[in-house]
Design goal:
The protein is of the alpha/beta class and about 280 residues long. It has 8 helices and 7 strands; from the N terminus they run H-E-H-E-E-E-H-E-H-H-H-E-H-H-E. Strands 3-2-1-4-5-7-6 form a 7-stranded mixed β-sheet. The chain binds S-adenosylmethionine.
Length: about 280
């Protein structure tokens, strides 16, 4: 399943991604770039890989418009704003991280960000992906990966029951449908992943979800599951799973409203530096 992305393609995908970005930013106390990365004080090329709506690139470009040149890269640019609305220091390009790197991207960036790459990168391809990302960095450049910590998902209910049965069933169904949630060792042990990729000065963070993000996290997941159901129904080999997923999602959504279910969705972030020589 590595390399396949089962979300997107809905009219609200951009809004859902925006919500997810805002929740992540909130849980990371607003740090688009980790404080361990030195502040931008000279002109810098910054890439946002698998950019979705390009929101991270747009946000970071605003922090230092005279110094940051941001490039938002994604296999599918349907969710980015129209070109005419982009500031001068942001460009968007089609780019497939699962393919060989175009020569012009080698050693191009001072900083590379990738947020929620787990949606298309499983363990089977993590080493080649990491090698590609490191190859895109200039010597001395920084890689920052921010994602969900899948080992730390849990549900909370306003009634105190921590195991809402229909929500848990949906989680298990998704697990079976997509071949298991245990395909992200590369994220679970991000320090080792970064070390094996040859990065130095490695830092990692595991951040608990703030209570205020629980309910919107749950809504975001419910929307993602609706998107996944629609994507499955158009998929050549996965169609047969769509109806079951959408039916269970409906039960889970009803339960989430009745019980007041929230999602504790811890964030993980890794930062590493490419050796200067
Ligand atoms: C979950 S979204 C995250 C988007 C964005 N980083 C954010 O935080 O809002 C994952 C993105 O990865 C993109 N993607 C999927 N496969 C890709 C590939 N092979 N190369 C580059 N981007 C890819 C998808 O199109 C989607 O926009």
């Amino acid at each position: 399943m590595s390399g396949e992305y089962y979300l997107g393609g809905s009219e609200w995908a951009a809004a859902r991604l925006r919500l997810q970005h805002e929740l992540t930013k909130c849980n990371l106390d607003g740090h688009l770039l980790d404080p361990s990365i030195p502040p931008v004080k000279r002109p810098m090329m910054i890439a946002d890989v698998g950019c979705g709506t390009g929101v991270w690139a747009l946000d970071v470009a605003e922090t230092a418009p005279e110094l940051v040149q941001a490039e938002a890269l994604d296999i599918n640019l349907d969710e980015v704003p129209p070109k005419a609305w982009l500031p001068k220091n942001v460009v968007c390009h089609e780019f497939d991280l699962m393919q060989e790197l175009p020569e012009k991207l080698v050693k191009r960036y001072d900083i590379i960000n990738m947020q929620f790459g787990s949606s298309f990168i499983r363990d089977a391809h993590s080493k080649e992906v990491m090698a590609r990302l490191v190859n895109m960095l200039k010597p001395g450049g920084y890689l920052q990966i921010t994602d969900v910590d899948y080992s730390r998902w849990s549900w909370v209910t306003a009634t105190g029951d921590t195991k809402p049965p229909e929500v848990v069933k949906l989680y298990e169904l998704v697990d079976q449908t997509f071949g298991g949630f245990h395909q992200w060792k590369w994220l679970g042990d991000i320090e080792t992943t970064f070390m094996e990729a040859g990065l130095q000065s490695i830092q990692s963070r595991r951040v608990e979800a703030k209570p205020s993000t629980r309910q919107p996290n749950m809504m975001n997941w419910m929307l993602a599951m609706l998107e996944a159901g629609h994507a499955l129904s158009n998929h050549p080999t996965m169609k047969q799973h769509a109806d079951a997923l959408l039916a269970q999602r409906m039960k889970a959504a009803t339960e989430a409203r009745a019980l007041g279910v929230g999602m504790d969705c811890a964030v993980t972030r890794g930062i590493g530096r490419k050796p200067s020589r």
